[in-house]
Amino acid sequence: MLQKMLEDQYGITAQEYVKLEAYDALRGNGWLYLISNPTGREEEDISELEKIAQHLRNNGDQNVSIFLPSKDGNLIATWEQNKYCVLANRQTEEQRKIRLGRKLAKFHERGRSVPFQIERSSRIGQWKSLWEKRLEQMEGVWNGLLFQTPEDEFERIFIESFPYYLGLTENAIQYLVDTELDEEPLETDSGTVCHERFTKRTWGPHQNYVIKNPFDWVFDHRSRDLAEWTRERYFRNFQTYDVDLKQFFEEYQSIVPLSSFSWRLLYSRLIFPLHYFECIENYYITRSEQDKKVLEEQLSKILRQSGEYERFLAGFYQISGAPIKRFNLPHLEWLYK
């Protein structure tokens, strides 16, 4: 099926099908072709991502996927009533252990020099309004449940726990606002190519392939990726994260030292309880009873570990090696009571 589409729309023959985690891919001619579904994206979105990808490749990042135009020159191909984008990656040898902190810093430095205006994928300066919007929506759902008997255990836990996370979100927004008022961003704080959600596994290796997929990208402040990597690392095992955290930030700052503005922006993002929001949002989106059960367990776990997360927030600057005294980085008073 996908082989036929690739031949029909792109004139490419590739016989070997490969499943790379979330990706469908075909292998042939020394290339790996990722078949992506451009759901919800228009030609202009894809065109902007393609220009960013081109810029990064021209500046030396050979792991960035190349958008292939179809035979008729479009970046989105329609075949049998489905839409497709094809991303090509050179087959590479098995990767040595990569120092992810350094790699990410270099990626951000290349991304900072994008020579054109980014409009469609930019999130610069939007955190506050996006957080407020999510909070408002969730508060609306919570208010609707307050005066009725909870339908199930999940709702009962949600009703009880929401005021705490409302407070945490307001703390995150206040910390962000104070940062933007108090700190003057440096040149290194200009927007760059970031990821919707950067984790240890974002680039792979996916079966020996390092893949930097433009569909993962947003244009934002570098602290977005640092915060999301940190969050995922913490939740993977909250008892052993500190060594990795210290090493990752050392590696990153061996390429680019973080400014006071960066540290504070990063911290505001960690205070924002994204894990809680996603758990609640996913519960109300899903139709699957099995998923609901999993999310109920996840919510219970989040609440059990909330004290642990407070300790993580209280110690973050220290563990990551942030220059607390030199930059006079403010902490949340109530975490230390």
Topology:
Blueprint: H1 2-10, E1 16-20, E2 23-28, E3 31-36, H2 43-58, E4 66-68, E5 77-79, E6 82-90, H3 100-112, H4 127-146, H5 153-182, E7 192-195, E8 217-220, H6 223-236, H7 241-253, H8 260-271, H9 274-285, H10 289-304, H11 306-319, H12 324-327
Antiparallel strand pairs: 1-2, 2-3, 3-6, 4-6, 5-6, 7-8
Helix pairs in contact: 3-7, 4-5, 5-8, 5-10, 6-7, 6-8, 9-10
Which features does this protein show?
about 325 residues; alpha+beta; Phosphorylase Kinase, domain 1; Aminoglycoside 3'-phosphotransferase, Chain: A, domain 2; 2 domains; six-stranded antiparallel sheet; two-stranded antiparallel ribbon; 8 strands; globular
Structure description:
The chain is of the alpha+beta class and 337 residues long. It folds into two domains: 90 residues, 2-Layer Sandwich (Phosphorylase Kinase, domain 1); 197 residues, Aminoglycoside 3'-phosphotransferase, Chain: A, domain 2 (Alpha-Beta Complex), CATH 3.90.1200. 51% of the residues lie in helices and 12% in strands. It is globular. The mean pLDDT is 91.
Low-confidence stretches: none
Count of the domains: 2
Secondary-structure-derived class? alpha+beta
In round numbers, the mean pLDDT is 91
Quickly give the CATH architecture of the largest domain. Answer: Alpha-Beta Complex
Q: How many alpha or pi helices?
A: 12
* Main beta sheet: 6 strands, antiparallel
Helix content: 40-55%
Order of helices and strands: HEEEHEEEHHHEEHHHHHHH
What is the first-to-last residue Cα distance?
61 Å
Total E-strand runs: 8
What is the CATH first-level class name of the largest domain? Answer: Alpha Beta
Shape: globular
CATH topology of the largest domain: Aminoglycoside 3'-phosphotransferase, Chain: A, domain 2
Portion of residues in beta strands equals: 5-15%
Radius of gyration: 22 Å
